[in-house]
């Protein structure tokens, strides 16, 4: 046995029923004490004293019966005689006190065994045993009632403790209290401590539950404010620290998303100190995302800005993935096509406008929409200009070579129409002059009378 109280009771019960020997030889109990142990020890001590007193009385009676009352010599076998004859007392008269003492001693032994049985059952957690041996006397009746009352109180208390522990620890029902009516002293103190513990656990668990529920709904303003000690204090500090960090983290995320997504200000970073684990990885990923987005959009913006200024020598050269890679490729393709388009337009305009080589066309493939309309418009313009200028040149060459039979077809508009009319007018004037000169030679008349209304050099 490793329980000092059980060892002490075992030593008492192992004394072979000799109360006087047990009381004299067994050392005093030196183990842990409480109100229950002190009560049991005091009652066992009382029973030992009663047993020792009864044993002493039996021993004294035996001694008085073994010595002759008249001569103080060892007595012989008792002789049957009349009680009133003056001789030695008869066996029936001398054995009556001895039997009464032995009966009393046996009764005390039975009571001690019953008390020891109940105490041993209590020590091993069996609260169903009670004192059942008949007792006599006020003191023994009080002992029996008190010990049975202790068993009842412990049974009631253990039932309440099991109920509360089952409600809190297994069923998760908080707010329960131990009910022990009539408990006093150490029992009342134990009940009060249990109720205080249950109330404290209820308050702390409900505070943690309320705070975590608010956290789950996005409310980071809650905090655990209940008093706590020990590991509950560690849990309180940990959760409040978590809420504080999440609050700071959420504020930083909101600031970054507002700057980048609403205000259009790039380059910001999330600044949350002392982050570790997943929170640190999340912070680093957000900062990396913002940094990549900043570099990519600034590169695209720079290239588009250069295109707007007419410079097609820049390309988006930052690393990109996903849809940002698609945007990078689209912008780079746009710059490449615009560079090719501008090169073709510059070539055609230089050939026509500076070098005077007509008939050129802008060759740009894969364009659609406005760019295709622009290319088609330029090519149509160069075609019309080429045709009109070449027709005018052909007519003027005919006039220069004396052929005034050709004129321009009326297909041009605007200033080219005016050029066309002027050219045709020159041709008609040459035709009239040529015809008048021919008739004058044939008829011997002056040219002025046959040419019509010539002006300037023609006149």
From TrEMBL:
Listed InterPro entries: HAMP_dom
Protein name stated in the entry: Hybrid signal transduction histidine kinase J
Region (Disordered): 70-101
Keyword field: Kinase, Phosphoprotein, Transferase, Two-component regulatory system
Organism: Mycena indigotica
Composition bias type Low complexity, residue spans: 80-95
GO MF annotation terms: protein histidine kinase activity
GO BP annotations, alphabetical order: cellular hyperosmotic response; phosphorelay signal transduction system
Biased composition (Polar residues): 70-79
PANTHER family, A to Z: HYBRID SIGNAL TRANSDUCTION HISTIDINE KINASE J (PTHR45339:SF1)
Keyword Kinase in annotation: yes
PROSITE patterns in alphabetical order: HAMP (PS50885)
HAMP domain ranges (all copies): 199-251
Alphabetized Pfam families for the sequence: HAMP_2
Gene Ontology CC terms: membrane
Keyword Phosphoprotein: yes
